[in-house]
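From: lab user (bench 3)
To: helpdesk
Subject: output format question, protein + adenosine-5'-triphosphate

Hello, I'm new to running complex predictions and I'm not sure whether the block I got back is the full result or only part of it. Here's what I submitted:
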Amino acid sequence: LKREGFSSIPNERWEDVGGLDFIRESFYRDIVTRIKYPEVYEKFGADMEVGFLLYGPPGCGKTLIAKAVANEAGANFIHIKGPELLKKYVGESELAVRTLFSRARTCSPCILFFDEVDSLTTKHGEEGGWVVERVLKQLLIELSGAEQRQGVFVIGATNRPEVMDDAVLRPGRFGKHLYVPLPSPYERGLILKALARNKPVDPSVDLSAIGRMEACENLSGADLAALMNEVVTTAALEEITASTESTPNATSHTIRAAHFELALDKI
Ligand code: ATP
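Helpdesk reply: Thanks, we reran it on our side. This is the complete output you should expect:
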């Protein structure tokens, strides 16, 4: 059972992420190699960004790729939801932020992931009020102390980068900004392949072609995951029905194109 704010190495892997090659390369360079080969960076005296902002529409893999980076680097992962941090610790917000970073340092190498980070960094005067201001101030202090943050990387995620305080987005804070877009038709195929990994998909099913279908237009990765769930359920129910009715020549135990057609009709 994983509690919020609890650290562990995630199970999500690179292979679970469809597309997003640009972000993957960027994180490999800026996070994975730095965690795996700290001595090399030390030798070169590298002073690189340790704070990243993933922004873009919901359900396109921000959380997923952050977890995959941690897995790839063998780093602990602490998942914090911005609004919950505010709600939980009203009156002790600065302490909560300090505790969080100190916990991250103790379990270094560690990736500290702030979901809905915009809720912590709303521009002064807008929504929120004093709790936000105080959390923001403490967050900036923690983010600025890069030299004490050996092995701790911070990734923020937001659907609304435009409401964020510019001070938070400067170099040395959430300084590197990466856009996570809705997948292209080609990338939808890659996502379906990633989601189909370890599933008994019949070799006749052309996942790239399904990804390019008009019915999949504008679907996010999360939508495609929902589609895949529907497909799996349809195939499983078919097999259960066939086995309980002990139909002769019961359908094969694989996921076939017809299951995708049925699922797409439902969506
Ligand atoms: P939000 O902004 O709503 O927090 P998010 O961008 O963080 O969304 P995720 O939580 O990473 O999105 O994605 C939700 C689920 O959708 C994932 O657990 C995964 O099943 C699926 N998914 C999304 N994007 C991808 C992708 N690129 N490859 C494979 N699966 C994906």
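A quick orientation on your result: Residues 17-20, 58-64, 115, 157, 159, 180, 191, 194-195, 221-222, 225 surround adenosine-5'-triphosphate (CB under 6 Å). Let us know if anything else is unclear.
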